[in-house]
Amino acid sequence: MLLDSISSPLDLRALTLADLTALCAELRDEIIRITRLNGGHLGSNLGSIELIVAAHFVFECPTDRFIFDVGHQAYSHKLLTGRRKIMENLRKAGGASGFPDPSESVFDHFIAGHASTALSAAVGIAKARDLKKLNFRVISRLGDGSMSGGMVYEAMNNSSGLSNFIVILNDNQMSISESVGSMRTYLSRLMRSKKCLILRKRFRNFLNLMPTRFAKGLESVVRNSLAIIDGNNVFEELGFHYIGPVDGHNLQDLIEVFRNVRDIANYKPVIIHAITQKGKGYKDAENDITRLHGLEHSSSPRYTDIFGNKITELAESDERIVCITAAMKNGCGLVEFEKRFPERFFDVGIAEEHAVTFAAGLAKEGLKPFVCIYSTFLQRAFDQILHDVILQNLPVRFIIDKAGFPGPDGKTHAGLSDIALLQNFNNIVIEAPSSRRDLEDILELMAADIPYPIAVRFPKATAPDHFRPSIVPGNSGTLVISTGDIGNIIHRVIDRLESRPTIWNVRSIKPFDFDTLLNLSKTHQKILVIEEGVFGGVSNIILEKLIAEKLFNILRKIEFISADKDSVQTASREEQMNPMTLKLTASLE
What we know:
The chain has 589 residues and is an alpha/beta fold. It folds into three domains: 2-283, Rossmann fold (3-Layer(aba) Sandwich); 303-457, Thiamin diphosphate (ThDP)-binding fold, Pyr/PP domains (Rossmann fold, 3-Layer(aba) Sandwich); 471-588, Rossmann fold, CATH 3.40.50.920. Helix content is 42%, strand content 15%. It contains 25 helices and 19 strands. Strand 3, helix 7 and strand 4 form a beta-alpha-beta unit. Helix 6 (118-131) packs parallel to helix 7, helix 9 (194-207) packs antiparallel against helix 10 and helix 16 packs parallel to helix 18. It is globular, with a radius of gyration of 26 Å. Residues 191-197 and 223-231 have low confidence and may be disordered.
């Protein structure tokens, strides 16, 4: 295999075009094999292979900085940069992260787990390079779904005048679900502009025959003329030299374009618009690009599935229920809701800030908006939650999916901050289910005519069918307080012990039931509070109340066990929780 001979991008330089084409096929086979074994992002990686191979063939990473957005398209990049061995355990303990991570390799220059961030980071890197009088290229890779995020345009607005600043727009017309919004329509129009594509190609061939200084002036004049035919190009208006669309699977064309860009990018920013096919080379993924965006090995039903079914059921009898998601229709369980109620379903793209304030507007007019966002992405909209929802006490319903330990997605997707962020607001209710019935009960509460904002958080995990009472008495003088689904983990740990503590699994995080805490503290000599969140969550709620009430006798009984967000590494959810459960076991013995 050619792939056996590749330990760094330098090894690509010795290959012919035929060799590179064969290497792309080998990379496809390897990515399919690895994701079948470990799960992971399949379709997006299959669609970006030629772009990555051509870029590594022409540019000089890691001297040239490769910045990914989003990083789930980087599997072939990892395979080409000396990480084939750890890719065998992709998204597992001791294996490769599913996203670029500078702590993993010098070839990963910037962490990339969230979307629409690459250009802002790239502008900062390029400005720092210029201030330090260094000489390297900054190459950002954007998916078209990222173009729905506002940070991209903020960064473009500040990239004017940068040299050796290259953006590769990988346009597969998809994010996880189909890309949405005006930019998607605009990119489609650019793709259809065949007349201008022909003129541009002939014009560029003509420019290559001219002296550089004369070519620059003529290029500006002719580009303005083409704009009359094609309409103004937004990228050109923002100061970029636009090239495209180009075939993102044609290695020869990509190499030629990248070589030309390498030589012309020293006088203005360049954007290369490449058209690719998600799932390229794997028929199942090509035919079902949404389902095979990623592979997961798990049982069901998950909390997400239960939410999707229940919200669809509730919407049948209440036409004021609407659902909003930020490019996560599938991940948030809203496929069936969209089918049943397309006019009440809103995918705003990768724009969490807009999603929240949009929901506030809907709530202001009497609708019942459910904002469905992963925990790790909700923190991006903190200002909007505070300013646009909390200050007006609007009944926006927050569905915080993938809360807690992230499992194989790793630290970029850790949902450990949402309680710490939201518990600061006096007028919000925060709920955490530990079973199917819990979640269904909470959703019925949320669908009622409530006069306040409310949030429910649940993990990427299977929801138990059985229902436990919130307080399970033990046979020792110790009380363990847990929240939501973490209570199921605690029960599995404690069931192995002879001396069993009382377990109080809290469903209502805010408002917190301090009366129950006071009553239980009278009959227990030791209290352990365990939560899969950074300090500042449930622990902070309890501490503040006990200190304010001067209940130091109870405070002296309490030991807090919580997660350290910075310590979350790629592993299963159970492995990530293991340090906490070990601490719990040690405290109980």
